[in-house]
User: Fold this.
Amino acid sequence: MISRILLFQQSPSRYVSSFSFLPFKFFCSDPKPPLNNDVNTVYRIITSSTSSTNLSQSLKSTGIFLSNDLIDKVLKRVRFSHGNPLQAFQFFNYTGKRKGFYHTAFSLDTMLYILGRSRKFDQIWEVLIDMRRKDQSLITSRTMQVVLARIAKVCSVRETVASFRRFKKLVSEFDTACFNALLRTLCQEKSMADARNVYHSLKHDFRPNMQTFNILLSGWKSSEEAEGFFEEMRGLGVKPDVVSYNCLVDVYCKGREMDKAYRVVEKMRDEELWPDVITYTSIIGGLGLVGQPDKAREVLKEMKEHGCYPDVAAYNAAIRNYCIAKRLGDAYSLMDEMVGKGLCPNATTYNLFFRVFYWSNDLKSSCRLYQRMMDSGCLPNTQSCMFLIRLFRRHEMVGMALKLWNDMVEKGFGSYVLVSDVLFDLLCDMGKLVEAEKCFSEMIEQGHKPSNVSFRRIKVLMELVNKHEAIKNLKEKMAVFRSSIQLSGGEKNLTETLDLDSLNVNHASRKN
Assistant:
């Protein structure tokens, strides 16, 4: 049946991230992209600075030209290495105060994300107010979504909507795109019921468009509710597009209702709306959920025959099916096929395997895969690191744990806070105080505050062996974090938790 349904012409249109069209202003054109060593140098200055004066003096002494491109790369490095938000904030302010200089929209949104992740909401509004004065055009609906997503994680729906209203004085046009940013945030961070209630309470203040309905449609988990909303769309005279139908297909596939998903695809064909790679990826995922990974792999072949070529997310969905079925040989075969087609496996691809190895306690395979990942140039994300460090902890593999840590420090990936807690547990259990002290110092030098639990544990062990000078040294290094600004709303636990049993492989999170 699937071969009959998927005989479609491929639409040339593709979904493109809004980041692709962000406006940029340059203080000075830079004929050469910044070298990696310049990015590393600036990053290390930021993470080791003790004050804004110290930061500016250190940056000036290097003679490195702080171009927009370099600043974008440095802030991206801070974001993915979970760097200190206040040190990054100092760097952002220092570079932004140069006469005639304008940050890019990428730098702005990245800085806001870094601050929001650590709940520095006062600093977020400070940045936005300053940016409205300098270049209001950089505050886009994408910016709104970055900010509102962080607020919604820790605040109520009412507070999120109140923050949304504050943007009315910040953006150049408070329009439907802004409304859509709010709805998308609520669908992702709250519940579909919350999003729909807000939609009904504010829809008269805006003019809902196709994207509005598609956002709400994608939030449904129940096929019955999705069908009802789909009919409501039609009743309002809104004609569904490919995105609308893809949302419905995805709901059916996740609900294991494959027959209904096929019928929607047939209806798309009847209306000359050609299924795209996202349609096929949903079908591949759905077939895996109903225990048909081989049939899902056939879909990869059929879509190529009809002009629609699978991307990394489509392959990840098929690989995930084989990993769930514990057919790792077939999963590896698909990953090799990806590479043969010129597609590079990403962190999500590797995490699918790491998850299986973690739960099956397969240390040897995890180490081999980690080496393959590093050799390919794909840096692990936080989830990869947590799979690995917990497995090394379980097997008391101090050498491998330290190798992972050294790679993190050298290449700037993963969450130091999350990984260090497990690493220090291992090192303390094995009596490796010298190594623990070294890693502790490296973490602080990178601008990350070790947890109080880790500090106390290392301190107790040092007291037992009378290493009082070492304790004094660690206390002095920890003192740099005492000046951190308290969070709005009081102290909160900032440690992020990670569900090692859940992996997102769909197109909603297509990231480089």
The two ends are 34 Å apart (CA to CA). The chain is about 65% helix and 0% strand.
